[in-house]
Amino acid sequence: MRPPKKHQHVRNAQRRKEKGGKKTTSSPYNRIPSAAGGSPPFPNPGEGGRSDGEEMRARTADHLEALSLEIERKLHKALNSNSQRLKLLQQLFADIALKVDDRARDKILSTNNEGIAPLDEREDGHLCFYEILANHYVKVPQSGRRILELIVQLWSQSFAANIFALLFHRWLFEVPLEGKEVSLRYSSALVQGATNVFWIDIQTNTRYFLPLYHYLLEEVALVPDQLIKISPQAGRNLFCLLSRFMLFYDQDHLLTSFLGHFPAFPNSFLVGGAADYFVIELTDQLQKLKVEPVLLHYLSRMTILQGWELRMSTSTRLKSCLYSFTSPGGPAYPTRTVRHAAWNTLDLLFPVGRYPRHVISLFFRLLYPWYWPSSCWNFVMTCVSTIYYYILNLLVSIWENMRRRDHQRMHRE
């Protein structure tokens, strides 16, 4: 017999109490489920004898497990669908690289997050899902092993290495591995995936993957005990990778320590020391840049190279690279702003021969008549601006001298 409606809510409450009040929800991103679903019940201090901190950590672990299950589900779907595989992996990569909004942050961040920098100490002020998940897979390694097995089956796909680098860059160095072949395969995938995601930051002129670069630089490259956990070739590739993106992520304050930990290369007697390798990688990176704000940022940060003792071949390579950005034509086709920034950097790093370079550049400009109108106009505007600011500074200095004399005269009286 069906119970009366007035007692139905009492029976529903009893069922929820017996089941723990759990519900199910599908998507984990920016709509974080509890245990497997909706909002978690308020903790009861009398049940189980657990404190508020333990209850919060338990709920956080449940949320992260739900996220892991969603990632595993998408990887299974990509593995079983040949036609949609690339699209599904691309969507998964975009999901784990998303920023965590305030509502989701309160649910998935516990009081015990030693591996994650606080928001008030971050330059960009935001937190991404991959940082939280990477920290979770270090604390709970078995949670990520199923995901890792699926990623290994998708190694040949373009976004598989990117996803591995974001989710397991901490796991690779903080969880014991079985066998050198496994370490070699994972370390190579880490370097490849990190290269891809750093180039995404370059192309978009953002810093979403700065935490990954921070970890690889400060927790791996500058810590010898961590670096020996990967193969020597992967370690050398990692240092070359960090050299290419150090100026972009504004980590040049660690450059001295970074060069001190630079590994030995087999062809060092031909190329040079750590400074030569760093400059060679930086020069190659400059020639690949096509985003003007990023290129200007690199040129402005290259002043740290002033006074370095480099081999003649390395110095010539750097000089040729900078000189290629000073001409308006090919192969770089730089804008006027880039040309002036390149001239300033070139004159600062190589002051010898500064004026002959400018004279030679002027004669080469005369060979391209179609650049004459713009060159003349920019020359006139530069002269007018220089004269204007010179007169303005002169008037200000005269006014300051007059005020200083009046003040001295009043002080004497």
Automatic annotation (TrEMBL):
- Spans through the membrane: 377-399
Q: Where is the composition biased (Basic residues)?
A: 1-22
Q: Which UniProt keywords apply?
A: Membrane, Transmembrane, Transmembrane helix
Region (Disordered) location: 1-56
Q: What is this protein called?
A: Uncharacterized protein
* Lineage of origin: Eukaryota, Viridiplantae, Streptophyta, Embryophyta, Tracheophyta
